């Protein structure tokens, strides 16, 4: 049994956590917050406000009454490649000054389904000002005038289309026809503004077939579109395509397939080593994981929608939701079997890393783990900051944007901190408790066979350290989908951090490393919330920082009130 009595923190750990916190603030927090304050950025519209502004624009520019709108959806969309290009080449400031006001790379896309009209009117709004910056009639064929122009476009047709766009706020003098058409069948116009680096701004217009220059205040929007894009240099686009292809391959062969194998192994070791523990172990945590992720899935329906749009398909919100729930149910099962199989494995090897509720000192152990978790989280944050800084300087690492993980695609952004608990529970049970346990069992078993007896203590320590590597690598490869490039940046970062997570679990126990993981994510998410520009999210960010402490205190007091007499 592990000692559940609360012990004072060693001063060395306190000093290490203090250094980690300072490094985190200096490298990750202060540069970002200082930049935000210097920009004096305006608050971001809420999703409800964006919906209302879209309905107002529909009445003002498209002659669509609010009573004719039967359904709306609001989705944050981002041009990840363009944001990545500006980030890689330090051009974000130039973009903010030159293009951000009229042609932002991040917008709210509001779909308005109008009674009696097929498809939907999708209006793109500036996320801060609410200005109309683009729109498109989704689910309708391109205008006939664009189709005709695709064969033999003329300057007269291009001028006609540009005049059509002017009815929706486009200034014709700002654009020059390129002499051709766009991939979508409309006309393409180059901006007269200077390029940013090698990035060039392009306007695309598709006019309805029956549009002619008239005095009508409301030219028909059905079959039309007025949008824009950024043309990036071909080498950069080719680089991003290679990176995305690598990310997919690494995710499939380095994470998904190993996860399936670990799932099978967890079931096997639950059967063979369940006698060393209880089959009730992990049921509660697996259910908590699934319940939280199910709730977050409903909360992230706009993010799921954004992901399918980016991939060029639109299966619908219900199918997205069903696929996600089935996936998380499978992950919950893996979490349960990892808990039972992992606890059984370690106990069969003479280690008890996870106290049980029925033990009298469980509540005190939770409080101790929570406190230690915060200190270890500061060490992890400091280490992460240094690693990312070194990778940025040595590999030219840069970040882009991803609408699928956007705060602005959450129906209730304040629920974001729950994601920290999903990650902390599942990843520590799967990758650390079970993953390290099974590889340590194999490595020590192999050494025992080769030696013909028990390996030395020093050899066991080396083998235990080596056992951290495979599950740490699988865990790292599960994060290559994040918008950080080169894609192996996160692999290097998380493999290095996996040694700390593994060491912390072996040194302090499972509960402490879960709290450390949750505190790490809660702090990062809290900082993100504090500066996302949404009303109320600063307070939500502060609450995120405190969530692990509140949960630890509640569990500790609840156990004290309900613990069985022993």
From TrEMBL:
Transmembrane segments: 12-30, 250-270, 282-301, 321-346, 373-391, 460-481, 487-506, 537-558
Keyword line: Membrane, Transmembrane, Transmembrane helix
Presence of the UniProt keyword Coiled coil in the record: no
Signal peptide interval: none
Name under which the protein is recorded: CAAX prenyl protease-like protein
Organism annotation: Cohnella cellulosilytica
């Amino acid at each position: 049994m592990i000692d559940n009595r609360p012990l004072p923190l060693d001063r060395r750990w306190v000093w290490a956590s203090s250094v980690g916190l300072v490094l985190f603030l200096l490298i990750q927090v202060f540069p970002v917050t200082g930049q935000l304050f210097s920009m004096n950025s305006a608050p971001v519209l809420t999703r409800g406000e964006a919906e209302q502004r879209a309905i107002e624009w529909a009445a003002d520019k498209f002659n669509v009454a609010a009573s004719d709108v039967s359904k709306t959806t609001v989705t944050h969309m981002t041009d990840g490649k363009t944001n990545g290009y500006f980030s890689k080449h330090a051009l974000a400031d130039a973009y903010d000054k030159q293009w951000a006001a009229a042609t932002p790379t991040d917008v709210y896309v509001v779909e308005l389904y109008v009674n009696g009209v097929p498809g939907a009117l999708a209006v793109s709004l500036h996320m801060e000002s609410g200005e109309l910056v683009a729109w498109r009639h989704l689910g309708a064929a391109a205008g006939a005038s664009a189709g005709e122009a695709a064969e033999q476009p003329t300057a007269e047709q291009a001028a006609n289309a540009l005049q059509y766009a002017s009815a929706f706020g486009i200034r014709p003098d700002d654009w020059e026809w390129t002499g051709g058409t766009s991939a979508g069948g409309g006309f393409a116009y180059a901006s007269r503004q200077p390029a940013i680096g090698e990035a060039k701004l392009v306007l695309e217009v598709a006019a309805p077939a029956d549009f002619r220059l008239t005095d009508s205040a409301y030219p028909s929007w059905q079959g039309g579109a007025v949008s824009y894009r950024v043309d990036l240099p071909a080498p950069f686009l080719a680089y991003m395509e290679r990176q995305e292809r690598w990310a997919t391959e690494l995710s499939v062969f380095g994470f998904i397939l190993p996860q399936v194998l670990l799932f099978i192994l967890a079931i096997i070791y639950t059967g063979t080593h369940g006698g060393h523990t209880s089959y009730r172990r992990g049921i509660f945590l697996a259910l908590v994981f699934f319940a939280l992720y199910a709730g977050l899935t409903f909360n992230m329906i706009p993010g799921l929608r954004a992901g399918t749009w980016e991939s060029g398909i639109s299966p619908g919100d219900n199918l997205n939701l069903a696929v996600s729930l089935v996936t998380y149910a499978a992950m919950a099962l893996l979490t349960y079997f990892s808990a039972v199989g992992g606890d059984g494995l370690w106990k069969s090897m003479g280690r008890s890393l996870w106290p049980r509720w029925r033990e009298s000192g469980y509540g005190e152990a939770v409080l101790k783990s929570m406190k230690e978790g915060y200190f270890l989280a500061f060490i992890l944050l400091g280490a992460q900051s240094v690693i990312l800084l070194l990778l940025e300087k040595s590999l030219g690492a840069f970040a882009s944007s991803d609408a699928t993980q956007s705060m602005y695609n959450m129906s209730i952004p304040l629920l974001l901190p729950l994601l920290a608990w999903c990650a902390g529970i599942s990843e520590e049970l799967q990758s650390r408790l079970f993953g390290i346990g099974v590889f340590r069992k194999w490595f020590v078993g192999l050494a025992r066979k080769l030696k013909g007896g028990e390996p030395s203590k020093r050899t066991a320590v080396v083998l235990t350290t080596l056992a951290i590597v495979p599950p740490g690598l699988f865990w790292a490869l599960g994060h290559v989908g994040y918008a950080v490039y080169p894609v192996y940046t996160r692999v290097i970062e998380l493999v290095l951090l996996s040694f700390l997570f593994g060491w912390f679990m072996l040194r302090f126990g499972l509960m402490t490393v879960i709290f450390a993981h949750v505190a790490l994510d809660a702090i990062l998410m809290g900082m993100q919330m504090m500066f996302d520009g949404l009303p109320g999210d600063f307070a939500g960010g502060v609450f995120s920082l405190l969530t692990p402490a509140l949960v630890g205190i509640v569990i500790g007091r609840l156990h004290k009130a309900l613990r069985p007499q022993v």
